[in-house]
């Protein structure tokens, strides 16, 4: 609302000034990215912003102390080096002006001008190195770690609070639901089976009948025809655990051409594909392929080799689909199968397209060729999945991806704000000219003020604020920090010296706050993954699955092994005529850890701490845990959140 | 032992080769720093090394995955940019050789060559920026955070294990001691008062009688003349809590010249000094002083001002000593009083020395003048202590200092190893010449191989491995990371290209492992400080102190306030004739949180989790918690550890 009001005011002022011919700055543009936060699907982003707001007071004190330390060291530097008549490597006066010293030492905190800023003093006397070493230890190592500590501590506190609130809300809503649906049964208050099923159908319409039946059997353990309060409250958690229903279907080919598919040759082939050596062979092929990629491809043999490798990869996928049931192979949780198939077919398409273009126009299309190269290298990633230890790390990384998008959003908002300000301040001041340009001052980025500057010498002319895309890339480079002082000095030279404040502000907001939150988030996600154990509810489901004889022996089977296992179950059925009770021809399996979000894990960790009888604090108390929290609509969405 | 054997072997080989006139490398020099670990007072350093060793396997897997990602991206870069005939800003070929690409991209991970490494590709096509952005996100942000997460996780796990072991050992030894000293008393087994006192005298000979009496009253709460098992076991903790015995002595001057000290003028003066405004006045003086320091001091007025400020500061200290009891003012825990006095008197001495030298030799001594400048600025730090929020952060920082020395030791060992290797590899290859030197190749650091290199252009010649001190400074600059590739390229140019491996190895060991442990340590120390509450034992002591009427009202009083309080107590005694029971004219106070070590805090946190009845696992089990742990000698040293 405030943002809209501000925008309208600004529009009015701009309009009025326009009438009088005054060019004013549309300052409300800066406010616009705030709409991104409010309108987009951005609950996570809002949460992240709330987390930042809560962190601010505490970080402010550390920041003030840090600034004090910086000012003190600058004063010392002025006294120690100011009257030595030293010069920098560029021949400029060294440490004469207090404000310039403060800026130089702030840059040193980010390590971007180390060791250049030290060299003139160091050349004068080796002892002066001690000053810079003390400075770096105090400011770069201790204070920057302190910032991370404060941000991480607050992030964790805030996260815990939010999660606790969600958990209590869920508990509360489930009890409310129970009170609405309850009926008397003997002395107990219970929910009867029919109502329960109706509820589950309503709440989660897309789960299968067999899955619902399984959940009922867990909730109504003794098959009494009703669900008591304690089991009912667990329903949200039960629904939340992904149970994969694996239909023990036979392969479509086995149904269509049973004779061929069941023949000795076909069985042998499928046996080969299922063998461990098949994976090893393809790992070896990938390695050989890597070498071929690295070699020069002008030699005709090597460019033919590419076709051979493509053919090998396509064969692999076809063989796997022949061996394993296609719907299981392309199941929702088979990340690597999808990855493989998409990469290979994209590479195939692009390579064919490129070959066609080449034969018709005699030229390679650069874009298509680039894509071919990238796809070709991406294929190699698959080898990571063959090594158990790597897979664990990869799982953590894949788990982190969804929440990482939140930070993408957060970064986008901050970038937008700074890009708009940057374009207002620096638009058109710096131009990029191609290397063969004859424009005046082409080497100084079209601006004589940059003559002999590090900015022009580093050929940074393309880093400018002339359009949105360029601004984003400049901001990305500033986030990476290195050489940011060259940018700051360059842009200050073409405008005014206080323009450096823009770059310092960006550093504080982006690097000290947001990057630290990002690091906190990765740390937390990693620790949660590490301290992960199976929850009670999950164990209950698994037990029931086993009891019903519909389980896969281990739930942590590797994908290939799992499929093997399914197949061998099928074989048993075929061979021994189904001695095991497999009433519906399906097995259940709890989805592997790999596809859980960090939030869900945290919530579960917290819930393990609340006893089941605890109904949690009252609604007002929950809401007062932090005044600004959003209240989710229904129990299901809460638990998914 | 292994190190000694290796050294002897090496010495023998060296001797033999020397006889035959062959110059061999004394490779065992590298082993020598290991003696530092074993012989010095370095239990903490050994612990840190154990922690690193335990972290290695896990970090290796992350590192391999990181290397895989690096090699993949390098391959992609080779394919995308290798055949574009691009040139770097220095006019060198861009991204042609695979190994060079790997090195360049490794440098980009450390952000040291951003954005230079991107510019040629970016100038060619804006789209190529996406490649570098993806690279930085994956490798710099995600993988480097993952390293921190792995190191931190292991650090915490290991620390917890060690602390747990210490806590169990302490409990166990105390029970053993109890069993040795116990006597029967009715149905209970107890330790009688006399024996208990004897034991305390033996174990802690330097605590005062009154303090011992206080501990006895806590252990033998009902004054039954003996201590039971439960209270006995707590003894180590009781001894461990610093109780400051403040003797309510009157000021020496009050004893020597009671008439003058008690006069109205003297009372008024002391009242003024104790007033809050006195502190504010001096804060204002410090700020004015800061401005004067920043101004040019050639003006005679300003150099006189320095004398005025010195006089003001000395007056302040004298006034305080006049007002407060000197032994309390210079108590062990009065950090800032000590700091103030030392700084001021050092500044006074140096300034007088400088003035004397100037009047006799007409020249300022540069060294003394530098020290005067530094001391002058350091005085300003005191202002931090006036603001409550800053003081909390400062306390954390001061608490961290002792353990930070461990990292100093760790860093020293690593630096020694690398300095020795570096001196073997690069000794004398690069020379530093003063600016006005006429030596050949003075601008190329005496080595024509460096012509036109960034190393020579950056005037880095003084960064060399010609002696130990220089090597340390170079390694410090490499730890800060920025421009390390310039060093690596420079030293590779004057020797051989594989010399770059030395710099990469240093980066992996120092930055990826040791700096991350340092950051982990600061994070942990900060979290422990934050989650700190008073322990049970501490509360018991405090309660007893209050019960006995020998307490200071608040134990978290600020230093000044505390002294005020003491004085006013004294006044009460003087004025009202001692209405309160103050039998021995002394008060106790639990030492403030500021002087506790992180280890002690952690140990206390863990102990809160063990119930008092739990005797802990058996000795073998404790030792098996981790096989290589050192066993402390006596219960007291354990709890101090």
Description:
Chains A, B: Keywords: Membrane, Transmembrane, Transmembrane helix. Chains A, B: GO terms for molecular function: monoatomic ion channel activity. Chains A, B: Its main location: membrane. Chains A, B: This is Two pore calcium channel protein 1-like isoform X2. The structure is a homodimer of 641-residue chains. By secondary structure, chain A is mostly helical. Helices cover 66% and strands 3% of the residues of chain A. Among the domains of chain A are: 38 residues, no CATH class; 118 residues, Orthogonal Bundle (Helix Hairpins); 130 residues, Voltage-gated potassium channels. Chain C (Four Helix Bundle (Hemerythrin (Met), subunit A), Up-down Bundle); 146 residues, no CATH class. In chain A, strands 1-2-3 form a three-stranded antiparallel β-sheet. In chain A, strands 4-5 form a two-stranded antiparallel ribbon. The longest helix of chain A is centred in the N-terminal third of the chain and has 53 residues. The two termini of chain A are 26 Å apart. At the A-B interface, helix 3, helix 5, helix 6, helix 14 and helix 18 of A face helix 3, helix 5, helix 6, helix 14 and helix 18 of B.
**What structural category characterises the helix and strand content of chain A?**
mainly alpha
Largest interface: A-B, 81 and 81 residues
Oligomer: homodimer
* Rg value of chain A: 32 Å
Envelope shape of chain A: globular
Count the beta strands of chain A.
Answer: 5
Reading side by side through the largest sheet of chain A, how are the strands ordered?
Answer: 1-2-3
N-to-C CA distance of chain A: 26 Å
Q: Count of helices of chain A?
A: 28
Task: Report the biggest beta sheet of chain A as strand number plus sense, adding barrel if it closes.
Answer: 3 strands, antiparallel
Strand content of chain A: under 5%
Helical percentage of chain A: 55-70%
Mean pLDDT of chain A: 77
The low-confidence runs of chain A, each spanning 5 or more residues with pLDDT under 50, are: 552-584, 626-641
